[in-house]
Input
Amino acid sequence: MNTGSHAEEVGVMAVRAVKKGALQRAVVRSTKASAELEGRTVPAEFVRSERVERFLAERRKRT
Output
């Protein structure tokens, strides 16, 4: 019996094109939800230090 696509047959999700901004928003939502579940939220007024910003910028360059 043919039930549809190959993706359905092997139990994997089909590939979809996702805009970079949409992906970033999903990551932020997921990260916030995970942090809340673990009881480790960051206050909205929190600002990262310049040192941390430089560190993160360097890491982004590598990936």
